[in-house]
Amino acid sequence: GESCWPYLIPGKKYFATSLLKPKIGNFLVFKNPKDQKEIFVKKVKTIKRNSYFVEGTVSWATSSKNFGPVNKNLILGKILFSSA
Fold this sequence. Notes:
Layout: E1 14-17, E2 27-32, E3 35-48, E4 51-55, H1 64-67, E5 70-71, E6 75-82
Antiparallel strand pairs: 1-6, 2-3, 2-6, 3-4, 4-5
């Protein structure tokens, strides 16, 4: 979707890794805490012990306000860069 526009563009390919620890400002790929069949990409807003609070970059995006913190075991990786 367009919830991370203009940083992430729909239809473009991005590379992510689970080998690096996410930091504030990184974009995470994770399972939706309320429906683990769904995969989300959101920006890290805050880090608390074993969970992350995330947000989209547009006002109408879903975020941790809607589904709560993202436990670290739901994180699939953090986005490193996009393909050319």
